[in-house]
Amino acid sequence: MQLTDIVTTHLKINGERMRADFDALAQIGAVPDGGTNRLALSPADVHARAWFADRIEEAGLLLHDDDAANLSGILPCADPAAKTLLIGSHLDSVPDGGHYDGVIGVLAALECLRTIRENEIELPFHLEAIDFTDDEGCWMSLFGARAMAGMLTSADIDDSKRDNVQFRAALKGVGFDPRYVLSAERDPDTLAGYLELHIEHGTRLERAGVKIGVVTGIVGRKTHRITFLGQAGHSGTTDMYKRRDALRGAAQFIVRCHEAIRARYGDGIFNCGNIEVKPGKFNIIPSEACCTVEVRHVDEKLMGEMETTVLSIARESAVSHDLDLSTELITHMPAASMAAGAIQAVEAACKSLGETSLPLISYAGHAAQMLARTTPCAMIFIPSKDGCGHSPKEFSEWEDVERGANVLLHTILGYR
């Protein structure tokens, strides 16, 4: 088939085959409430990776893994020196997650390569369907993509552990030598780009009645550990006006941050997802309250302003309650823009298939956020019922999954 014919082809993926793959994978790590427990490098994750490897070989693709344990199926083109177009997502899940997150991106990538191979279509680049290791951050958020993009250090790996198990030991346990993780970095000159199909994890498509989201950018994230330090005392006998109550200061801080971010930064996000209180007894005034908070924004400058606002409120809250304060930046995940040419390829695919689309910012992190530093990236979103994600209730209509996979297929066919 000539490249000029590709744009007008009515080629579609095999939806029944992809559905059978989806149903089979959903059984790996399944939990009684209907969700999935497939934490990175766990036995369930290893099982899923082995299942994926079998499908790759059955499809006649080249099986490949790298030193960061990323697993791929490759469809080479006629030119050995050509660049590679990456397509994929992840098979690992959060604890008690759903069946769709990441999975549809990997299965759609596999199905697109099958379809292209079966129809003997020649493209000017190699195709690689990839499952990125530990996208969900069981050990390190977006680990596989960070390794491929050259955004890891040995210290990052040394510092990562879970339940007192070192990440290095976990990698060894599944057959990978952590000493060579950094060699998973890809030369940007060898890459044509990266495409990813994903559920939205939100309600914007559902509310708009639009079936395809074209991601224009992915928000950055800064995570801080904010610790308020006061003085423990008897909860019954200490004068209410003389208390140095760390939890009270933390509570004021959290409420004020929500109010300030909503008032000043319409597209910004603030969240406090964890508070650790000491001594943690109902009849003792808290002497310490440690909050883990994050700010998110697609604009790095505005995210920096949000960070400044949050830290300023923390200092004010500490002073007003006679508390000491310590702050620590835990994570800075920079914002990323999708590439104009890759976005245009997605939009052209939608047009050729008669699909309407909506430009969207992604408020969740994805592999494309890392890879955008080294190669052009684009993401395709499909609707999430009630916006639900990271939950056993996560659901997308199968018709929408197939629709997204066909947009992905035609994006690949029209990509230059």
Explain this structure to me?
The protein has 416 residues and is an alpha/beta fold. It folds into two domains: 3-219 and 335-414, Aminopeptidase (3-Layer(aba) Sandwich); 220-333, 2-Layer Sandwich (Alpha-Beta Plaits). The protein has 13 helices and 15 strands. The chain has helices at residues 3-6, 15-26, 43-58, 103-118, 143-148, 154-159, 167-173, 204-208, 246-264, 300-320, 340-353, 367-371, 398-414, and strands at 62-65, 71-75, 84-89, 126-131, 161-162, 165-166, 191-199, 212-218, 220-229, 269-278, 288-297, 324-333, 336-337, 357-362, 377-382. The strands form three sheets. Strands 1, 2, 3, 4, 7, 8, 13, 14 and 15 form a nine-stranded mixed beta sheet that branches. Strand 1 and strand 2 form a beta hairpin. Helix 9 (246-264) runs antiparallel to helix 10. It is elongated and about 80 Å long. It starts with a helix and ends with a helix. The model is unreliable at 1-8 (pLDDT under 50).
Strand content: 15-25%
Tally of helical runs: 13
The CATH superfamily of the largest domain appears as Zn peptidases
Report the CATH architecture of the largest domain.
3-Layer(aba) Sandwich
Major beta sheet, specifics? Answer: 9 strands, mixed
Average per-residue pLDDT, rounded, comes to 96
CATH class category label of the largest domain: Alpha Beta
Number of strands: 15
Task: Label the overall shape.
Answer: elongated
Element-level helix/strand string: HHHEEEHEHHEEHEHEEHEEHEEHEHEH
**Content-based structural category:** alpha/beta
**Number of structural units classed as domains:** 2
- Give the termini separation: 16 Å
| Radius of gyration computed on alpha carbons | 23 Å
Low-confidence stretches: 1-8
Which range best describes the helical content: under 10%, 10-25%, 25-40%, 40-55%, 55-70% or over 70%?
A: 25-40%
CATH topology of the largest domain: Aminopeptidase
